[in-house]
Design brief:
Strand order of the largest sheet: 1-7-6-3
Number of strands: 7
Number of helices: 0
Number of domains: 1
Shape: elongated
CATH architecture: Sandwich
Distance between the termini: 50 Å
């Protein structure tokens, strides 16, 4: 599935699927350098719920998952996740004349 983005002030669930074997007992770890993003990874590290603060001013955030492959080498992948504008919930009415 493609990365479509997370709505500002909302959350999205991301999953990882290794393209080979991981080291036994290796639990993938999720991270982001965007301090307005909160990560809640599953206990086994295969998924992560990412919440974006309503005040985040960035157009996107990096999401990284790291682990250890069956040969003992560290592996990681980073994707750029767009932050989508929040949908309208109504109208502001002002008098213009």
């Amino acid at each position: 599935m493609a990365i479509t983005g997370v709505v500002l002030g909302g959350s999205g669930t991301f999953t990882e699927k290794p393209n080979g074997a991981l080291q036994a007992g290796s639990v993938p770890a999720w991270s982001s350098t965007d301090t307005s993003v909160t990560l809640a990874p599953s206990g086994d590290g295969t998924s992560c719920v990412v919440s974006v603060a309503a005040a985040d001013v960035n157009p996107s955030f990096p999401l990284t998952v790291t682990g250890v492959n069956s040969a003992g080498a560290s592996i990681s992948t980073t994707v750029t996740v767009p932050i989508l504008p929040a949908p309208a919930t109504g109208f502001d009415i002002e008098q213009s004349a």
